[in-house]
């Protein structure tokens, strides 16, 4: 290792030590900012964000050929290709309008239905219908009504023989959003990061010497002595003691 590499390594070690020293001296500030960030995130998630509930149902689609001659690999391939068509039918305006009418939501904004997710597990003819809504009971009602209405439409449009509901949607007991614990941890982390950046910037900008040891550390100067600084009150007290 040449002299340049040794100097670079020493400079790197000094900088790491300097950064660690800055953070150590500001540990109380870092802790307070971390707790404050976590508290703010907790309060916002718990009291200001609207909870969202999740309900899901699924249906199994069987065509007429499968019922008469048994299920073949060709039938499965055909059904898998139709899965995209089924998902499109479930979220069609015709189906959604019927759902709103059945639930007495006619004339309201489409947002009242919440977020509707339709998916099909790989290599199956099962359609999963999920609903996210602010109201847990309404989310379950929407999912079940969607399954009922879309089943009739799928049979009518694709000439499927039967659409069987596998699981009925139930109201969610706990909201899926917001995740209070996750948000609180992210808030605490954000508070720590911002505090660390602020402390580091302050340490870089502030180039004053606070302790005699700083002269030896940063300038390699040997301290021979320290001259104390007294305030006026301390000076008067010292004179009074001598005079007494």
Structure description:
- Helices cover 61% and strands 12% of the residues.
- The protein has helices spanning 3-25, 27-48, 64-69, 73-90, 93-102, 136-158, 180-205, 212-219, 232-243; strands spanning 53-62, 115-119, 126-133, 162-167.
- Strand 2 and strand 3 (126-133) form a beta hairpin.
- Helix 5 (93-102) packs across helix 6 (136-158).
- The protein is elongated.
- The mean pLDDT is 80.
DSSP helix count?
Answer: 9
Mean pLDDT: 80
Give the topology string: H per helix, E per strand.
Answer: HHEHHHEEHEHHH
Spatial strand order of the main sheet: 2-3-1-4
* End-to-end gap: 66 Å
Number of strands: 4
Name the poorly predicted regions: none
Integer-rounded radius of gyration: 35 Å
DSSP helix fraction: 55-70%
Q: Based on CA inertia axes, which overall geometry fits?
A: elongated
